[in-house]
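Table S2 (continued). Query chain:
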Amino acid sequence: MAKSLDAWRPDWSALAAQIVDRSLQVARGERVVYLVDPNECAELFDEVRAAVLRRGGVEQATILGWSRRLAEQRTPGGRALDAETAQRELAAHRGLLATAGIFIWLPTSYAYPEAITTWESERILSDWRGRGVHFHWFPDAGSPPDHPVHRELERVYQRAILDLDYAAHAERQRRLVNAIRGRTIRVTTDQGTDITFACPKDGWYCRNDGDASPARSRTTARDREEELPCGAVRLIPDKGSARGVIALRGGISGHTWNWNGTGLDLAKLGDDIDIVFADGRVTELRSKTHQPELDRIRAGLRGDWDRVGELVFGTNPLLVTPPAARMPAYWAFGEGGFRIHLGHNWESGGDYDSDLYINLFFMNTTISVAGGDTMVSGGRLLI
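Corresponding output:
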């Protein structure tokens, strides 16, 4: 008889084996640094430590997340209140990572943004020469803490990690990259989005296929921090290529919580916005109901807020969003998902920087190659 959701528990030992034995392939003598919250998934941390020790790895250090009490002594981004101290902390952690070859980021609290020092590890990894795994075990954003969808989502995550055919998935990602490299793609939705992007011929593509082994080549922070569950193909479109409109009409992804980020509150404004692009830049933020507030926000934005920093194709066929979820499972990494990222993209090796960082999640797009085949239809990846 199948276990009920209440009786079911994650197989932390098997998940740890995927992280340590198969994804990272930790070698004897390799030094490991962890980033953890001792109050989140403590059994997983214990199993990961045991797996590292069995393989002869060396535990170099553990960086702890911030409790709510400690977060009161930090900025909203988890940094030290004093700017000079914050820089010293960053330098100390950069020096620490330089002594290790492996970084393992296990779940930290999703309940408040100060749980970790935001973006610190990503900035360090951008010029680090090691390899890492960022293990995600997110609850469903916007659902109450006691809602059963969170446990259902955990089962989805476990299946997407342990039951995935990694070789077939990696091959499918390679086919996708080959199909779009050097081509122009058109993205449309029933809500009115109709926008084109030129995919670089010789540019960077990140295939998040679960392989964090020593043999894998790495050029950006994204490449150095393999995400689990895996399931993303990332690229930075050619500058100047974005043309058309992104139409936000509430549940753009088919769910009610369809974005994350900072700089533009789409929980309040996302039911009626057209983001219009020409020659790679936003030319209009247009709304029938929110125009005065959009004009006010736009006047205060700085840097490359008007650029598309990254495009992300979701590819994991087992990362299926539960019907009761408000946000697409693991931010649209499931097969057929599509993400448009606005604003800074230094984590992916780009040169955009801005005070706006927005991810838009779409689960029901049609995506086709100019003069070629349709690759995504009705949220299904056809490659």
